[in-house]
Amino acid sequence: MGKRLTDNLSSLYIGAANSLKPKRARRKIVAYVESYDDISFWRSLLAEYEDKTRYFEVMLPSQSSLAKGKKTVLMNHLGSQLGENMIACVDSDYDYLLQGRTNTSRYIIENPFVLQTYAYAIENYHCYAKGLHEVCVMATLNDHELIDFPTFMEAYSKIAYPLFVWSIWFYRKHILSEFSILCFCSFVKLDQVSTRHPERSLEVMAKKVNRKLHELEKKHPEGIPEVESMKKEFRSLGVYPENTYMFIQGHHIMDNVVMRLLIPVCTVLRREREQQIHDLALHDMQLQNELTSYQRSQIGVDMVIHRNTNYKDSSLYKRIQQDVERFLKKIK
């Protein structure tokens, strides 16, 4: 009787163990990404399309070295190597807005086995305005809404938009020595942000942007009609004055705009919560215990924002989903 029970348990254990193994009967599609930071984003997106017939394995571009980056992803797998079982997933950078004016841009746009972010980079999705309040709540455990983030980022975008179009004009003309991405970003960064008067930081930025616009228009009058034409073209690409921040360099938006906004907001929210604890504590021991518990529960806003996934209602994210769906239809 004991042996039979032991055998039954062994059989159940083996069956359970086998059920935990990946179903190798499914078709594996390898997705190469640029860096460690990109793995989570593409894993989350592609997992939505896994079923009994297929699954994705998200990998770095090289299995034989530590080489990473967009060039490594694309150049290692050009031509026939990318296909039904192997795709590349890359940041768009400016290649999407260049619309085929360089070899890389043309390759990314025309190759059905290359998925792109449409936004400049994954950082832009982490900075998606509608998700920023949730980032603050997770970091501070305080749901008080101090700033309307979507309205703020829309205002920021409208100020940056005309100078942004000029920066792309220079990029398309290959005149980067006169007005590079770095130079453009220096005009559209935020200085110190006040949580009581956040609009003041935008007013300071607007003055710098307007001065540079007048300078460029005076120096390059031939570019004015081309820039106006580009604005019409951009609308067809999903680039509007209201969402420009999604197409500006991702690290800049993260470090010099959004974090400069979130850090003072989170500081105020934490102080509010701590003051509430002070006001409600009945004695010193309860006060210290509650403060310690609250402080241990906090997470740095810089960590939270890199885990932020509240961007899935973005129109740009939905474009990536449409590309995945087109790819899956093609391989059927």
Give the SSE map:
Layout: H1 2-20, E1 27-33, H2 36-47, E2 54-59, H3 70-75, E3 86-90, H4 95-98, H5 103-110, E4 114-116, H6 122-126, H7 132-140, H8 149-173, H9 181-187, H10 199-219, H11 223-237, H12 250-280, H13 284-297, H14 301-306, H15 315-331
Helix pairs in contact: 7-12, 8-10, 12-13
Q: What summary fits the major beta sheet? A: 4 strands, parallel
Q: What average pLDDT do the residues reach?
A: 89
The N- and C-terminal alpha carbons lie at a distance of: 53 Å
Global Rg: 25 Å
Number of helices: 15
Q: Rough shape?
A: flat
N-to-C order of helices and strands: HEHEHEHHEHHHHHHHHHH
Judged by helices, strands and strand pairing, the structural class is alpha/beta
Beta-strand share of residues: 5-15%
Walk across the major sheet and give the strand order: 2-1-3-4
Low-confidence stretches: none
The strand count comes to: 4
Percent range of helical residues: 55-70%
Give a brief rundown of this model.
The chain has 332 residues and is an alpha/beta fold. It has helices spanning 2-20, 36-47, 70-75, 95-98, 103-110, 122-126, 132-140, 149-173, 181-187, 199-219, 223-237, 250-280, 284-297, 301-306, 315-331; strands at residues 27-33, 54-59, 86-90, 114-116.
Verbal overview:
There is one protein chain. The protein is an alpha/beta fold and 332 residues long. It is built from 15 helices and 4 strands. The chain has helices spanning 2-20, 36-47, 70-75, 95-98, 103-110, 122-126, 132-140, 149-173, 181-187, 199-219, 223-237, 250-280, 284-297, 301-306, 315-331; strands spanning 27-33, 54-59, 86-90, 114-116. It has a 4-stranded parallel sheet. The radius of gyration is 25 Å and the shape is flat. The mean pLDDT is 89.
